[in-house]
Amino acid sequence: MNILIVTEDRKLIVQDIGLIAYKLAWEYQKELVSTRKQDSNADDVLVLTEHPPVYTLGAGSQEQFVHFDLTNPSYKVHRVERGGEVTYHCPGQLVGYPILNLHYHRKDLHWYLRQLEEVVIRTLAHYNLLAKRIQGLTGVWVDDYKVAAIGIKVSRWITMHGFALNICPDLSGFERITPCGIADRPVGSMAQFVHGITLAEVKPILVQHFTEVFRLSAQYLEESPTSWRRHAEDIKV
Length: 237
Prior knowledge:
alpha/beta; BirA Bifunctional Protein, domain 2; three-stranded mixed β-sheet; globular; acyltransferase; Octanoyltransferase; aa-tRNA-synth_II/BPL/LPL; cytoplasm
């Protein structure tokens, strides 16, 4: 895959791990964070993935935004340590998990959230989509449709979790929740505005803008995460 390499001092390792069970990607993030807590010189990482249908709730999520029986869900449900309310992941949605050491960037969570939004806004602009932020909310909107959700966790200034950009997903799973606790704004996707759009074409564009916004030099890593080898049975989706 060809991408524009931005020449900067700090490296970004990009791992495109494809369609993978949410729990496996979650465990892999925790491994990467642990490594960076032990070695502050370790490179930043951007994990790109898709998930089979799954609902996730942030650490402080309110169950009033879930409109199904949590004891008998149709899809897997995970409560995780990120901020934010309930959201939905499924194929056709590009999920990015940046594992960054903010000591090398800026130790400011609001700045970090705005930078993630900026990456998505620039990616959408590549397709002539005028994307915007909404005051007091986190995420990115096009024509009042929320096309990207963001939820993060930062520990000792090491980031995990990240963003989910709806490219060409089946959005019906969002009907069973109040996404991100926002009842009056619909969820949308890039496919509503760009006919035939695919994840494969968006990924390198997003990586390019990620490296530009965070001033990093990208390098793709093809090897499988060690956690895949330890939990090979979980790779099946």
